[in-house]
Amino acid sequence: MLVVKEVTKSFDDLPVLNNIGFQIADNEIVALIGPSGCGKSTLLNIISGLEPLDIGKIEYSGDAISYVFQDDRLLQWRSVWDNIRIVNNTINENEISELICDVGLKGFEKYKPNQLSGGMKKRCGIARAFYYKSKLLIMDEPFQGLDYCLRQEMLKMLLRVWNRRKQSVLFITHEIDEALTVAGRIVVMSKRPGTILQEFNLKGIEDRSLSSLEINNIRQQIVSSLT
What we know:
The chain is of the alpha/beta class and about 230 residues long. The chain contains seven helices and nine strands, in the order βββαββαααβαβαββα. It has helices spanning about 40-50, 80-85, 95-100, 120-130, 150-165, 175-180, 215-225, and strands at about 1-10, 15-25, 30-35, 55-60, 65-70, 135-140, 170-175, 185-190, 195-200. Strand 8 (about 185-190) and strand 9 form a beta hairpin. Helix 3 runs antiparallel to helix 4 (about 120-130) and helix 4 runs parallel beside helix 5.
């Protein structure tokens, strides 16, 4: 569905990405994890077509990509309902209502962004991205700045929405436990210039315990890779 081949990128004399390669299959959640400044966001911008690459190739079988940025990027003059509806020319009121319910915004359909909390804005942005209905959804540290309990709640919400729609997701984070919670596969990047250090395949997402022996072993291997 998505194939990233030997992607290399520099800004002037600063090398940012070096020979990056990995794949994402249909209906798969892949978490890309690495230290701050390793080129994760640059790689997302290359995949989405916002940034040109120097060397390599991006192969994608879809027509478009949904993008959830670190900031919510909602239209301030539109309601929650309209912020979701506007990304798709086909209006399906039942689906919009279902998404609003799934992300925990039922009752807030008519609210404007300035009436919402930070977490609620992120929920609206995620609902909007899924309603866009691309084959691939990429998320650039979407829960950055939220406290631990709220992040865990948001991760469960993301899995709930994904379970209904089964789009492929590339989830970028530098929080190991976020990756361990949502991903079927974790790709670990090195410090800048970012390259792929390791990949980990995880068994079923539903009812996964972050305290299990298997998850603890993977956590320790990721920590070792990043230190």
